[in-house]
Design a protein that fits this description.
By secondary structure, the chain is an alpha/beta fold. The protein has helices at residues 25-35, 44-49, 79-84, 98-104, 161-165, and strands spanning 2-8, 13-16, 19-20, 39-43, 58-62, 73-76, 92-94, 110-116, 124-125, 134-142, 152-159.
Length: 167
């Protein structure tokens, strides 16, 4: 299964200057729980924004630079090549950035979205979720608290069966 996973603001904001817009510890825990043991696919800039290799995940980084390499990382020159590196039957999680999400949304079967209930200045955005193609199947609200400056929601979307049958 191909899943897009992201934390976005109310206007689908993802980040600014290759940085996340918020710090939500429960979102990090949620991300880790969902992606651990799986393949994570991302663009080079997203990889470089991480603190390092994420434990217990196979990293696949998309880079147009054929010479780019990093120890412990599989490299692909496009999204299809990245998906081809995921063994049959294994789950793949696309974790960014905006351009990679836009390319991958048509191939995804699920979206795991943390909807942060705020608007922020951003230069990178998640693609629009077309309600004719995607069905919201779960929506779990969490209030702001001493560790979370903003209220947020864990939302899961699944590709509607009508969208799957037309592909």
């Amino acid at each position: 299964m191909i899943t897009l996973i992201a934390a976005v603001g109310l206007r689908n904001e993802l980040g600014k200057d290759n940085q996340m817009l918020w710090h939500l510890p429960n979102d990090f825990k949620h991300f880790k729980a969902i992606t651990s043991g799986h393949h994570v696919i991302m663009g080079r800039k997203t990889f470089e924004s991480l603190p390092g290799i994420l434990p217990n995940r196979t990293h696949i980084v998309i880079s147009r630079n054929a010479d780019w390499q990093k120890e412990g990382v599989l490299v692909a020159n496009n999204l299809d090549a990245a998906f081809a590196k995921v063994p049959t039957g294994d789950d793949a999680f696309v974790i960014g950035g905006g351009e990679i999400y836009s390319q991958a949304i048509s191939q995804a079967e699920r979206i795991e979205l943390t909807r942060v209930e705020t608007q922020m200045e951003a230069d990178t955005f998640f693609p629009e979720i077309n309600p004719a193609e995607w069905k919201l199947v779960s929506d779990e609200a969490h209030p702001a608290d001493e560790r979370h400056a903003y209220a947020y929601r864990f939302q899961r979307y699944e590709k509607s069966t009508s969208a799957l049958s037309t592909e």
